[in-house]
Amino acid sequence: MILSAIFAIAMGLTACGDKDTDITYAPAETINISQKSFSIDNAATQLTASVSTSHEFAAYSNQSWITVSPANSAAHEATLTIDVEENTGNARTGKVIVWSGGSRDSIVISQGAGNLNIESPIPGYSLVWNDEFSGKTVGSDWTYEVKPAGWVNAELQNYVKEDQVAKVSNGTLKINLVNDNGTIKSARLYAHNTSGWTYGYIEARLKLPTGVGTWPAFWMMPVNYTSWPDDGEIDIMEEVGYDPNVVVSTVHCNKYNNSGTAIESARKTVSTAQTDFHTYGLEWTSTYMTFYVDGVKLLTYNNDGTGKNAWPFNAAFYPILNLAWGGSWGGVKGVDPTCLPATMEVDYVRVFQK
Question: Which residues are catalytic?
Answer without folding.
Answer: 233, 238
